[in-house]
Amino acid sequence: MGYSVGQVSAFAGITVRTLHHYDKTGLLSPGDRSPAGYRLYSDADLARLQQILFYRELGFPLDEIAAVLEDPRSNALDQLRARHRRLTEEITRLQRLVEVAEQAMEVQQTGVRLTPEERFEVFGEIAFDLTYATEADLKWRHSDGYRRSMARAATHSKEDWARIMTEAADWRARLTAAFDAGAPPDGERATDLAEEHRRHISRWFTPCPTAMHGRIADDVAADPRAFALLVPPGEQRPGLAPYFRTAVHANAVRRPPPDGPDRTTAP
């Protein structure tokens, strides 16, 4: 039984033009003909086509495929080894490009311009989740506060970040100590810590009115990725995120804006 060029094109998933090209170059020339004189592909032709498509999928050029098919016993293994080596080298190159792209994305979405080694040295267990950073960028990209914060973050040196993280670690230790001691979240100890955190944001990133601080605290309590930026997993306690949120909102009541209600709409 023979198969027309249209039939082979349909079930092989390649174009008629490709089959004509293979025929023209001698790579795959159908050997049978219909009573009307049309060329037909035999089962042997289809088996050869399957080999051609296999090698094409591996990236072999047509002339190398022709050489392999002409003398498969002497050439196939060497050709496959050479192709494997080139593919491995290409994978390594593409992985490097992916890493560069991810680093560039992270710089754009977090504002932190440090090498991976510097990031590990400065941030330790604190890690930026790019999914969270991307969502934040989409959500707040039109906010003046968000843009100011990202711009300020991009200007910080490694030494600045080291100081920021030292301050943050000291603050976290005192927050967890207050939580562990059972200090009420709306009491003076916890709200003082909330106010200190608000001032930390204002000092290093962007002016942070109490309403903005409240939205940050809401995000921390609602999203584990945001909480992980505030408190690394190894230091977290069940209930600490809502405790921080309550303290922030209590601090806003305790320290209302000097000029009336804060109408800031985004970070």
Topology:
Layout: H1 5-12, H2 16-25, E1 32-33, E2 39-40, H3 43-57, H4 62-70, H5 72-110, H6 116-123, H7 130-140, H8 144-155, H9 158-180, H10 188-204, H11 210-222, H12 224-230, H13 240-254
Helix pairs in contact: 3-4, 4-5, 5-7, 9-10, 10-13, 11-12, 11-13
Supply the CATH architecture of the largest domain. Orthogonal Bundle
Question: What do we call the CATH topology of the largest domain?
Answer: Globin-like
Quaternary state reads single chain
- Following the backbone from N to C, one meets helices and strands in this order, namely HHEEHHHHHHHHHHH
From the alpha-carbon coordinates, what is the Rg to the nearest angstrom?
Answer: 32 Å
Q: What's the average pLDDT?
A: 79
- Which strand order does the major sheet show? 1-2
User: What is the class of the largest domain in the CATH system?
Assistant: Mainly Alpha
